[in-house]
Structures are given as C-alpha cells and as structure tokens.
Amino acid sequence: MRPVAWLQRRFVTGFFVAVPLIVSVAALLWAFDLIDSITGPLYARWLGRHVPGLGLLTTVLFLLLVGVAANNVLGKRVVTGFENSLLRVPLFRTVYSPVKQLVEAFSPENAAGFKRVVIVRDRAGVFRLGFLTREFDLAVGEGAGEHLLAVFVPTNHLYIGDVFFFRPEAVIQPDLTVEEGLRILLTVGTAVPARVAARLPAAGVPGRGHPDIESAG
After folding, report:
1. In angstroms, rounded to a whole number, what is the distance separating the alpha carbons of residues 138 and 83?
2. How confident is the model at residue 217, as a pLDDT?
3. Is residue 116 classed as helix, strand or coil in its secondary structure?
4. pTM, whole model, 2 decimals?
C-alpha cells in the first residue's frame, strides 16, 4: 500500500473512531453544564451554600427520568414530539440524526439494532465475533430467493467494521447477549466467559473457514 493511501485510510479510520467518542463526551459535558447552571443557583439558594456533586446527581436523575418517560406511552409521545420539533432545525438534524442512529445501533434494547451475538469464520479459519443486524431474502431473477443473514464484524474498533452476508448454516450462535458481546469488545476479550455454549451451524457445512468473509490479516 502506498504511503499516501495508507495515511488517507488511517486518517479516515481515526476520524470515524474519534468523532462518535468526541460527540458523546461533548454531549454529556454540555448536558451537565446546562443542568448545573440552572439547578446550581437554586440549590445554593435553598441550602444556603454550594454543595459539590449536586449538579452531577441532577444530571443523572434527569437522564433516568428521560429513560423512564421514553418507555411510557404518554412520555414517549412527549419525547417524540419534542424530538420532531428539533429535527426541523437543519443544522441540528444534520448532527443529531446520524449520532442517534449510531448510538441506537449499539443499544441492546433497540429492536432495529443488533439482534444477537454470532461467531463466524474467515478463510484462515479464525473465529470472529459479530452481531446479527438483519435477515433478508436475496432474490436473483425469478427464483425463490436465498435467505441470508447480515452480520456486522467489528475490526479495530467497536464503531468500525465490515458487514458480511452469510447463509444461516454458516453462522454460529453463542449463548451471549448483545450486552455481553459489546462488553467483550470493549474489554478486548477479557470479559469472555470461561465456557460459552453455542448452537453450531447446520450439518453439511464444512468445518474449515467459509469463503463468505475475507481474512483481515
């Protein structure tokens, strides 16, 4: 690989790795500063002095209440209505929508995100951890079509990876929740249980690596 192409690829990777982290941290700091600037003077007036940590506690309680409201029918309508109003602002919509979709994709409670943890093999026979994102039928011509699984396989970072399409019999389904799978990635494998039960691919599938996925080596 030429130096310019190598630098360009590493720059793009670094950009997409850093931006979600920076946006997430900046959003939390902004929310903390906003809530603390509103509640800080009120607490000082009520208590007669400034109490460190109350702003952080209020922010945590606020996020908890938003989460409770978002799971309530009436609260969900209020949150959705407020969100739709903000999405009419062009600049806000440009930043908010991609960040929300990215965060929701990694949320275990999101039905449109990761369905379950899976394990696939590359051509070198290396097992790779992935996430089932969607099942669909590939119709070529007028045939009945073929059922395929879309699998997201993280590479050098949780937010960066590749999407591959596998036949169901080529995918191993371990007894791991999506939350456990994310924890394994974030802890660079140290959170893997000592024993993981799994459903093996259907009979007739070769034991060696499948040609559906290229080796990342």
Report:
1. 35
2. 36
3. strand
4. 0.51
